[in-house]
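Field notebook, page 176. I keep forgetting to write these up properly, so this time I am using the form the group agreed on. The chain and the ligand, flavin mononucleotide, are recorded exactly as supplied. Prediction of the bound pose follows.
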Amino acid sequence: MADEKIQLESLFSLTYGMYIVSTAYEGKFNGQIANAVMQITAEPICIAAAMHKDNLTTTLVEKSGIMGISVLEEDVPMTFIGNFGFRSGRSIDKFCDCEYITGELGTPLVIDHCLAVVEAKVINIMEVYTHKLVVGEVVMARALKEGGTPLTYSNYHLIKRGKSPKNAPTVVFNAL
Ligand SMILES: Cc1cc2nc3c(=O)[nH]c(=O)nc-3n(C[C@H](O)[C@H](O)[C@H](O)COP(=O)(O)O)c2cc1C
């Protein structure tokens, strides 16, 4: 291992899940894959997602102030991840052939290949260079299945042999 000041391999030991972050604005439904999602407070329950500034989902989340998180299960097909994670809603309708429910704020929450859904109202957005850290207060959370295994970011790479596109915060791991 090279003796660099920032060893990228060390960051690969941080753990993540795999999610679809979704939203709706003026009748347009959109969503994107994100691994950089976490719960940050308990009372009230708040979540945060790191979203690239160039993503359509990021723009629509900012405009609408609503955000959904769907927790992907381990046996989700790679084609499903490809649709949400490697293509932009600027050129396709990602919701035209996937199942979803609508949250109380109007957020489309993807239920295909997912174990749980969460809906949140955006309360803060912080700029972090290429990304925006979007913080939302949870208004609804529902388990869809019991006993399923959530897909981890690590298994996305190790089992599914998946890569990350340029807008993912963890894109650097593609080279390792
Ligand atoms: C495995 C994986 C992880 C990703 N993680 C993130 C992430 O945490 N944040 C982000 O902004 N984009 C992430 N992306 C990239 C977006 O999903 C991608 O840029 C998407 O095409 C954006 O679509 P949109 O323009 O319709 O919003 C990830 C993609 C993949 C495949």
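OBSERVATIONS:
- The longest strand covers residues 114-128.
- Strands lie at 19-25, 28-34, 37-42, 45-52, 66-72, 100-102, 108-110, 114-128, 131-143.
FOLLOW-UP: compare against the apo run.
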